[in-house]
Amino acid sequence: MANEVVDQGRRRFLTTTTAVVGGVGVVAAAVPFIKSWEPSARARAAGAPVTQSLKKIEPGQQLIVAWRSLPIFIVNRTPAQLASLPKQDPRLVDPKSDGSSVDQQPKYAQNDTRSIKPEWLVMIGICTHLGCVPNFVGEMKPEPFDPNWQGGYYCPCHHSRYDMAGRVYQGVPAPKNMEIPPYHFIDDTTVQIGVDPQGAA
Length: 201
Hints:
Belongs to the Rieske iron-sulfur protein family. Its EC number is 7.1.1.8. Residues 85-110 are annotated as: Disordered. The protein is an alpha+beta fold. It has helices at residues 2-35, 41-47, 79-84; strands at 50-53, 62-67, 70-76, 120-124, 135-137, 152-155, 160-162, 183-187, 190-193. The strands form three sheets. Strands 1-9-8 form a three-stranded antiparallel sheet, with no helix packed on it. It has a three-stranded antiparallel sheet with strand order 2-3-4, with no helix packed on it. It has a three-stranded antiparallel sheet with strand order 5-6-7, with no helix packed on it. The longest helix is centred in the first third of the chain and has 34 residues, at 2-35. It starts with a helix and ends in an 8-residue tail after the last strand.
């Protein structure tokens, strides 16, 4: 009778121990499996916001940074470049960005300068024709591709042209204005690309 009691106790002990060890094994196997579903550090970095100081960008200059493997053009537009923007409207496909290019910028950039602050253009530097990276031609002077050039972007691949707000000219292959990414200003001299301003719809 005593032996039966010992055997029952031992059986319970072995059953419990086996269940605990098995449970630990299942958890140990599940952790790396679940971890494998998470994006890699490289993937997280590729989609992460990019913070950039604007202190060294002089008026009329452009800086290019990478966000999600895309070139982001940051331009400090001069007063003369800003003054020329409304004068270009008759030459543009979608001057108010309310037609074919309505999806090319967030609501807070649906204005005459396509920006939060008029002097700062923050734009994805990809031509809307075939995805080339257009050249920044900031000087307001006649160019071989446009005798009335007022600064902006020229794509040498297929000759698409955009003004200093990334708005596409008529008569070129590109169908839409260049895209404005989500962005906001952390302070007067720092921009963060990839995050909308707080409270933006």
